[in-house]
Amino acid sequence: MSLPKTSSGAEKCAAQRVATLAEAEEVSAFLLQPNLFGTPLTPGEQEEFKTHPAAAIGCADDGYWFVRNEGGSICAALGVRMNVERTGIFEVSALAIQSSCRSQGLGRRLLELALGFVAASKGRGLLFETSSDPSYAPMHKLLATLGFKQVGRFPDFYYPGEDTLWYYRAIES
Length: 173
Ligand SMILES: CC(C)(COP(=O)(O)OP(=O)(O)OC[C@H]1O[C@@H](n2cnc3c(N)ncnc32)[C@H](O)[C@@H]1OP(=O)(O)O)[C@@H](O)C(=O)NCCC(=O)NCCS
Hints:
By secondary structure, the protein is an alpha+beta fold. It is 28% helix and 31% strand.
């Protein structure tokens, strides 16, 4: 399904920030749908996707954004939060595009939106935690394209045989 035609800025991908409980519930349902990600969600991810979109409403440092397709259904979602230390490093808590809407530049534009949000929040940088599973190769490539460097790897972090990779991009001041 094609995406609505849009202009620039946050509107570049027609992304809306979650502002109501109904929107938060839609985003949670989108992120929790089966097979959106290449590997099974961990129990922690399930909990986070269930609760964090609603918890982030009205929070200056944490937020969720979503994009609707022409039929009005959510076809992409992004979550960003400040680190638990609350010291200006932000993390992407979720990024996923519906499979029928991939390879149209939406993932790139949402990640650019995340970087813009961190810069506007005077953050020092953006951390992206992802999986070593080969199904995440598009994500690894997208991160490299936007100047993220792999800064760490934790073996078997998600599940035995599935490592976590940390990618980071500093925000130029
Ligand atoms: C990873 C993902 C977010 C990319 O979103 P997308 O909208 O398809 O990506 P874009 O169209 O913006 O492409 C941006 C770049 O990503 C990379 N990319 C996207 N799809 C790719 C593919 N199938 N193979 C290799 N690289 C790919 C490329 O570098 C591409 O740039 P290019 O078009 O100049 O080559 C999307 O594939 C997705 O939602 N995957 C499932 C969920 C997921 O893995 N999320 C990451 C959680 S850690």
